[in-house]
Amino acid sequence: xxxxxxxxxxxxxxxxxxxxxxxxxxxxxxxxxxxxxxxxxxxxxxxxxxxxxxxxxxxxxxxxxxxxxxxxxxxxxxxxxxxxxxxxxxxxxxxxxxxxxxxxxxxxxxxxxxxxxxxxxxxxxxxxxxxxxxxxxxxxxxxxxxxxxxxxxxxxxxxxxxxxxxxxxxxxxxxxxxxxxxxxxxxxxxxxxxxxxxxxxxxxxxxxxxxxxxxxxxxxxxxxxxxxxxxxxxxxxxxxxxxxxxxxxxxxxxxxxxxxxxxxxxxxxxxxxxxxxxxxxxxxxxxxxxxxxxxxxxxxxxxxxxxxxxxxxxxxxxxxxxxxxxxxxxxxxxxxxxxxxxxxxxxxxxxxxxxxxxxxxxxxxxxxxxxxxxxxxxxxxxxxxxxxxxxxxxxxxxxxxxxxxxxxxxxxxxxxxxxxxxxxxxxxxxxxxxxxxxxxxxxxxxxxxxxxxxxxxxxxxxxxxxxxxxxxxxxxxxxxxxxxxxxxxxxxxxxxxxxxxxxxxxxxxxxxxxxxxxxxxxxxxxxxxxxxxxxxxxxxxxxxxxxxxxxxxxxxxxxxxxxxxxxxxxxxxxxxxxxxxx
Amino acid sequence: xxxxxxxxxxxxxxxxxxxxxxxxxxxxxxxxxxxxxxxxxxxxxxxxxxxxxxxxxxxxxxxxxxxxxxxxxxxxxxxxxxxxxxxxxxxxxxxxxxxxxxxxxxxxxxxxxxxxxxxxxxxxxxxxxxxxxxxxxxxxxxxxxxxxxxxxxxxxxxxxxxxxxxxxxxxxxxxxxxxxxxxxxxxxxxxxxxxxxxxxxxxxxxxxxxxxxxxxxxxxxxxxxxxxxxxxxxxxxxxxxxxxxxxxxxxxxxxxxxxxxxxxxxxxxxxxxxxxxxxxxxxxxxxxxxxxxxxxxxxxxxxxxxxxxxxxxxxxxxxxxxxxxxxxxx
Lengths: 582, 330
Hints:
Shape of chain A: globular
CATH topology of the largest domain in chain B: Rossmann fold
Shape of chain B: globular
Number of domains of chain A: 3
CATH class of the largest domain in chain A: Alpha Beta
CATH class of the largest domain in chain B: Alpha Beta
Largest sheet of chain A: 5 strands, mixed
Number of strands of chain A: 19
Number of domains of chain B: 3
Helix content of chain B: 40-55%
Structural class of chain A: alpha/beta
Order of helices and strands of chain B: HHEHHEHEHEHEEHEEEHHHH
Distance between the termini of chain B: 60 Å
Oligomer: heterodimer
CATH topology of the largest domain in chain A: Rossmann fold
Number of helices of chain B: 12
CATH superfamily of the largest domain in chain B: NADH-ubiquinone oxidoreductase 51kDa subunit
CATH architecture of the largest domain in chain A: 3-Layer(aba) Sandwich
Number of strands of chain B: 9
CATH architecture of the largest domain in chain B: 3-Layer(aba) Sandwich
Radius of gyration of chain A: 24 Å
Number of helices of chain A: 17
Helix content of chain A: 25-40%
Largest sheet of chain B: 5 strands, mixed
Structural class of chain B: alpha/beta
């Protein structure tokens, strides 16, 4: 247990508040809903003190103090608003605006842009100084990310988060008197998109965000099928002003129907298939004692990380495809057959919390006889924008039911959206396969839940101790790989998600995304699971039906539900293409 | 010569850091000594970067043995410590060999500084030694608690170590080294009492001009602009005095000199220093100064900069306007 931290009492704007030893003024203010502007602060990152907007006054002391890096003291009297403070914030904001080439109409922050809000509050002249970054380049990283460095305000959150992800693709480069954030040409981006959700000013976005959102709907004479990822149902509501963690599954389905979806399916059903196959594969590997630990592979960014930075672990990834790829495949085979449809006429659109999924659907080894299982990926943010454009307000729309049969998931499929969900679902099903008698009723594996970056548990499989680990954040994964290299039998089964907290913290999720918000989104997923009648993937009627009627031979299962991975060589200049210099 | 004796001696002398910040030296030594850690570091800062300040170079050239003696006293006073001398590149070339012979087998290592001024800021200097970009650290923790590689670290300037040795030898007479330059007859480094006024120093060194002039005192770039009627004060900071012939000095060129230095040498970490200096330079170079904007920029530099460089960058401009009048820049 951690030692108890000393409580400190202080005053902020005359209000008595409590904090802990070693907390900063900003942390305590945030906790007490006292607003202090701070651009470079993010609960996931170290305190940098770069933007200098959070300055406050302290009674009895001369001058201004950055709230983000000033520790609280007993009886301290903090003032967060004064003439002096307003003046300092106003001028620093004007200087920040002079770095930031605005493109408000096409920005992921457009509705809750902190800069614009502050501009109004402090009555700025946002064009007091000419833009100094007009000529700065725009980069594209593979099929996933756009970085417009002319919007960057040099806060360095992206560099830090990229480093924290164990990748370090984004770096600082000195150019003349100033520096720029540039991609490191000797490295590869793994498309996790954490830069997007940690950039306070929208310098990063997904490819196609938001200009291509209507593309999937523009295909004439096609049957357009939308499928949405597990984590979307507890996050997209935020874009419409609903509280964090609001479950909007039915409303989401209704919205998708309204914009023209012929069918709406649920990727959580795909997840039930992934669980089923993955549990099978795990048990097989366990029996053969080969390629253990087995690593999950639902997360394309993690897979890419392994292929590029840890190729020695490629054989340890499960060969099972990710949920939306399996479901897309089933739509174009099983379901098309059942409906008597030409699969070429079907367009599958996945709504994902993720920008790496835009890259995943282009992987050729996933194609089914030349046909892509999934044709388009839109992020949570992109779908929200599309709804808005079509005049759909999720707050007001009446919920609708999902379509049969690929829209009815189990609770196991839903929790895939949070770190630990894949592991828990697979364990539930593996228990069934192994006939772990005494514990059949026990389906909750709480040790693998939660927002910590690294979780572990030992589970009794009929007397055999199975050691599992659940990791979120690629930096944590990198550390774990090192441990496993030193001690190969450390674990039997490992779940890795690239993003903090799993998909609920994905690079395609609404902004802001932080520790507090991720927790709310995740908890809502577990609430859904708890309320489901069927909480075991192998008990999903559609899973049983597909295995009985469609997956008749191993080859077919393999064709639709399994894939291959390849060690990738770092190619120079391949994917951080400079798309323009404006 | 035990540790307590040494620290008491330094404390009694009233010696304050000669790198510019003027922190009481005895207290600093005591803090590092008392910090609980298995390993500790000592850094002698010889990064002297501002034009117009050249006294550390002078001391290294003429009295390297005294400086090394000062560092050796620190090594003895602070248990389990090793030391770095952090030298700007030309000092490294010029004095490196001599220093090595004086160091002999003591754990004192020479470190060549990269060409950034800010690397003279004491925490940025630590970043550089640790192999990172020269940028200041958030304080607290202060280096005396957590410095190099997280260990308690004593950072003193060359001149400070010089005087520590003098104090222990009983030869400290409350003097300091002044760098005098500009439109003067006798440019150079002079050792004189700390309480001398600028006026007295200029007179005693036979440098008091016969023409109308002003001086910049303290740092060579970040020093204060002072007119002849206000010379009855002592020199602060790094002890520089630069004399300017008022009728021959182009104020804009002077300011351009400042902004060029600041642009080149700041680290671009924080908004006011990165953007503020950039905009300041823009105005100065275009010879178009808007007083309100200038005042706004100087305000955020002074009030909100991350480290001493940005905070100090406002003083020369403020004092120039205040003491020479705005006409000069209009």
